[in-house]
Write a structure and sequence with these properties.
globular; mainly alpha
């Protein structure tokens, strides 16, 4: 019994470490894309546009938008987990912290490698925090909630949200560019590869089957219909 409890505690500790390392890396990778100045990920475009408009730091804007999106979960009857709430704060704080350390970059010889590094780290970070199974990010929950309520496909809902976010952010002064396109093409394969690497098995115990190494809630196929609500502590898709 003591050995089982010890294994469960170790497993929980590893999940928590993986969650917060993943969220911190996610914020840092987003900051690298800002410094590269070659285009941001869709939500980053909106965050940057609002930061330019308000004068608030982009990390704080990310926190505010995450909190607002989380409020939209209430009518959608989505259930947040520890990872959901942590996502709101940790990503924004890590982003501002990284921007304070990494200064402006001069020349494509520096900016292109930083852009590529930011995208790769973003994919790694996505796999880390999703595989920890502490709940989807606020923006993921908005997507799956709208999918369930409207009956529209995941592909359509996600595309509609991200197009609206990118257009709004661009009109507010957010940055679009090669980095935006490369991110859109690369983040899916990178996140899926990272999920396989960092997937955690369930702790062995009475009535518990050890997982095979695949993430507990795989992403639904593109174009699929409504999906069931995620169980508490599970994530669906990268942001």
């Amino acid at each position: 019994m003591a050995r089982t409890t010890g294994r469960s505690t170790t497993h929980l500790t590893r999940r928590l470490v993986q969650l917060y390392v993943g969220l911190t890396l996610y914020g840092a990778s987003s900051a690298l894309l800002v410094r590269a100045e070659l285009g941001l990920e869709p939500w980053g475009v909106l965050h940057q546009g609002l930061a330019e408009l308000t004068g608030i730091s982009i990390g704080v804007v990310s926190i505010i938008i995450g909190a607002v999106v989380l409020l939209l979960w209430i009518p959608l009857r989505q259930r947040p987990g520890l990872g959901t709430v942590s996502n709101v704060f940790v990503v924004g704080l890590a982003m501002d912290g990284t921007l304070a350390v990494v200064g402006d970059l001069d020349g494509l010889g520096f900016r292109v490698p930083v852009m590529v590094l930011g995208i790769v780290l973003n994919g790694v970070a996505t796999g880390l925090y999703i595989a920890a199974r502490f709940g989807p990010g606020p923006r993921d929950g908005l997507m799956t909630g709208l999918n369930r309520v409207t009956g529209r496909s995941i592909r359509l809902v996600r595309t509609a949200i991200e197009v609206a976010v990118v257009v709004t952010g661009f009109l507010l002064g957010g940055s679009l560019g090669a980095g935006t396109v490369l991110y859109a093409l690369a983040i899916g394969p990178l996140a899926q590869f990272s999920l396989r690497i960092f997937a955690l098995p369930e702790p062995a115990g009475p009535g518990v089957t050890v997982a095979s190494g695949e993430p507990s809630t795989p992403a639904p196929p593109a174009g699929s219909g409504p999906v069931a609500d995620p169980a508490s502590g599970q994530a669906i898709l990268p942001q």
